[in-house]
Write a structure and sequence with these properties.
The structure is a homodimer.
Chain A: E1 7-13, H1 21-32, E2 36-42, H2 48-55, E3 61-66, H3 71-75, E4 80-81, H4 83-88, E5 93-96, E6 102-105, H5 108-118, E7 127-131, H6 135-146, E8 151-155, H7 159-172, E9 177-180, E10 190-193, E11 217-220, H8 229-236, E12 240-242, H9 244-258, H10 266-273
Parallel strand pairs in A: 1-2, 1-3, 4-6, 7-8, 7-10, 8-9, 10-11, 11-12
Antiparallel strand pairs in A: 3-5, 5-6
Helix pairs in contact in A: 1-10, 5-6, 5-9, 9-10
């Protein structure tokens, strides 16, 4: 029940029809007795800079979830941006500190990392291949670097995207070994598909699955189907896997912490949303 | 259940803790299957002009309910303001037309008028005394003029408030007979307490109740108690009465119409909110 005491979390993007967060957060808030609500706010690009500033003047706002098409723009609109968001060049969470300064972070990659950690893979000291250097690939690479991987392989058909991401990672994490230009998965502890391949029936696989060893952990970002052809092939080789939607549910506890709200587990969120 | 398709009605004011509208509108929307939600937005005066403009750039906003301390300021911030709002000098409803122009109206007085109409008193051609020329008294006087009363008596201890209101009424309704300076209720078809007298135990009555005739209809704006001393005295004289909260519930169907949403009755709203 929304009252005058309810805290707002603005969910800002456009178009709004495919927003999923309200249906994940709000049932959790209700079930956990947290007086907060995620409110979808459809905002087009020309209106966004003024709206973002204005919505954070509200006395009952606790934070904002930022989505398409504003994640990149947001980086330039805030007073303070985390290294992860800076490396990935995108923000999906904004909050206001005690002095009214707007701070931003990015939790897609954090969701991915929390998911694999809970499945038993601690990225610290490991090697990881991230195929796809777009928004989600950059986010995952940045979060893996933050989580302490020793080596990162980056690949994108647009070579400059992978190279740019690699350069930003090296700048923030000088000890990290970064390799770009190959999607050969052999020898990596962790292998991630961060391309859209798998969204559509008949998409080619993003790498040569025959070169994945059974000891590797394989993660996916595509959510349209749970068991994509990529994950099926990985499982057939005996790999442990993580499905795309785990990244979504695992990142929510990170957001909740960021907004100073009581947290929960990804499993509970998934059960409530179902 | 809030989704990306849900229409927003921003409820803007400060402080928000005493907001009642979310608990009246939202249960109705849910029960009636209307995909809309009233969202309290705490906004302080210096932030309000920019916020109002910004919130109306949202693609999924359907309207705004404006409350303290912004009702007066709003009149000067819109592209178009109804005569009722202009006379009363306050707006409590804002919407956007098809060209992005912001329009404002005021429904407190409309709620009052709808209430007495449903109780059998059509104000057309009648005489009414409105005691108190503050925000709510001005709103009721403006709505009574719009509803076609032939004569209005206005009284306020601050004489200039009553005279200013009278002048604005005469300007918009040249045929209306307006009298200011007396709170004598004798001879009026309709008598309204629009002062705060009755909010606190032991408040004096706003007029001499011995001069109210049993045929008069008596209305109240104070909501803190249902049967104020004023209404008790009126009922004791045999008058028909309207309680303060009727104005609140009766104005909501007017808002819903204004926002282009399916309407309902005040009784249903009251039952759902209870």
């Amino acid at each position: 029940m929304i009252t005058g005491n309810t805290l707002l979390i603005a969910h800002i993007g456009y178009p709004t029809f495919a927003f999923k967060s309200p249906m994940i957060y709000n049932p959790y808030f209700e079930q956990a007795g947290i007086d907060a609500v995620v409110v979808p706010m459809g905002c087009q690009a020309p209106d966004y800079p003024a709206f973002l500033r204005a919505v954070f003047t509200l006395t009952n706002i606790r934070g904002a979830l930022i989505t398409m098409p504003h994640k990149v723009t947001t980086v330039g609109l805030l007073d303070e941006v985390s290294p992860t968001a800076r490396i990935a060049g995108a923000c999906n969470a904004v909050r206001r500190d005690g002095n009214g300064r707007l701070q931003g972070d990015l939790f897609d990659g954090e969701g991915f990392v929390r998911g694999i950690r809970r499945k038993g893979l601690d990225p610290r000291g490991k090697s990881a291949l991230v195929v796809g250097s777009g928004g989600v690939g950059s986010a995952i690479a940045a979060s893996l670097a933050r989580a302490g991987v020793a080596a990162l392989g980056l690949f994108d058909l647009r070579e400059r995207a992978a190279e740019g991401l690699g350069a930003r990672l090296r700048e923030h994490y000088p000890a990290l070994r970064v390799n770009t230009g190959s999607n050969d998965p052999s020898g990596y502890d962790l292998i991630v598909n961060a391309t859209p391949m798998g969204m559509n029936e008949g998409d080619p696989l993003p790498m040569d699955m025959n070169r994945i060893s059974p000891g590797s952990f394989v993660g996916e970002v595509v959510m349209r189907t749970e068991m994509t052809a990529f994950l099926q092939a990985a499982r057939a080789r005996g790999c442990r896997i993580q499905v795309g939607s785990d990244m979504l549910y695992e990142q929510i506890p990170a957001y909740l912490e960021y907004f100073g709200l009581p947290g929960t587990s990804a499993e509970q969120l998934r059960a409530l949303a179902a």
